Amino acid sequence: MDFIPYGRQHITDEDIAAVTAVLKSDFLTQGPCVPAFEQALAAYCGAARAVAVNSATSALHIACLALGLGEGDWLWTTPITFVASSNCALYCGARVDFVDIDPTTCNISVEALAAKLERAERQGRLPKIVVPVHLSGQSCDMAAIRALADRYGFKLIEDASHAVGGRYRGKPVGSCEFSDITIFSFHPVKIVTTAEGGAALTNDPVLARRMELLRSHGITREAAEMTHASDGPWYYQQIDLGFNYRLTELQAALGLSQLARIDEYVAGRHRIAARYDALLAEFPVIVPHNIPESYSGLHLYVVQIDTDRTNRDHRTVFEALRNDGIGVNLHYIPVHLQPYYRAFGFQPGDFPAAERYYSRAISIPMYPQLDDEAVERVVASLGRALRG
Ligand SMILES: *Cc1c(COP(=O)(O)O)cnc(C)c1O
């Protein structure tokens, strides 16, 4: 039987035509598609600006730099995320700490964050940046986190890699109503894809311009940004230490074409989630908890083995599904338990809710083209695995 992956891209003839048109055009990079994609993305999210880059990892890096993160600073995030959410701080020479998750939403716990901030203020080591991650596509409680940011004076980067196409309190994720910068990933398993790719959205034109410079070597051709008058028409100045984090025209054309279907994709994900919710109701698993403020992007559908209702072992269930051709996955191994992070002194037991989640979570297949038959096959396989 066919293997069912946990996620996969959907490419249409329109996507192929859009990319082919770029191949036949004058510009493979630095042409009109990247700004068109940025404008479409910003308009979709209701943000002033979008800066497209070659990955969400790059977006996180330049977002941290634009906000002035450097040596001696702290960045805090959740341990239940992809390593990129915290690595961005290390790139800048800053230090990382984590805040445990809320066991119900599996997002960063606002109570734990408030308590940790109170302690950090007394110790004089408040974070410069906090990165809430919208796990599976469900927004964190951004209004409450914004209130803490205002009180303690830190900046906020939303890692919305899972959440493009979702909403919070009726507004699109990416509007940056409650944050300084929001970043997206366009990796093929995410909601819409550019193959590799990402973006940073903001309502602050100064931050947007800083990120544009950092994306492309820190080089400007704007007279107003130069230290002295131009030497001639060839002239540019490097005014910051940037990188080559640019998205290509091919990728932007694909992204623009995909963006036209984003609402359809997210709606498709919601139909599948509703089906899973119904079919799994009697299973000894905990299905995703939805908060009313959030309309999830539903990148992932994570079930947790309910250890109060079954003594089936997490790993056994996971392996049984894989052996059945179901491409389950685990999002995520708590970042503080990675060897690279243990070297900073983190240990098992540091973030108990995150570690408990890790001992029970399984991401089951979720993508809009998953048909009823495939959903039923996943559910049947999970049922067998849980019965043993
Ligand atoms: C995928 C992902 C990233 C990194 O995205 P890339 O585009 O692959 O760099 C960062 N954070 C989270 C939460 C992700 O899921």
From TrEMBL:
The active site is at K190 (proton acceptor). GO terms for molecular function: pyridoxal phosphate binding; transaminase activity. InterPro entries: DegT/StrS_aminotransferase, PseC, PyrdxlP-dep_Trfase, PyrdxlP-dep_Trfase_major, PyrdxlP-dep_Trfase_small. This is UDP-4-amino-4, 6-dideoxy-N-acetyl-beta-L-altrosamine transaminase. The keyword Methyltransferase does not apply. Coiled coil: none annotated. Pfam families: DegT_DnrJ_EryC1. The modification N6-(pyridoxal phosphate)lysine is found at K190. Keywords: Pyridoxal phosphate. GO terms for biological process: polysaccharide biosynthetic process. Belongs to the DegT/DnrJ/EryC1 family.
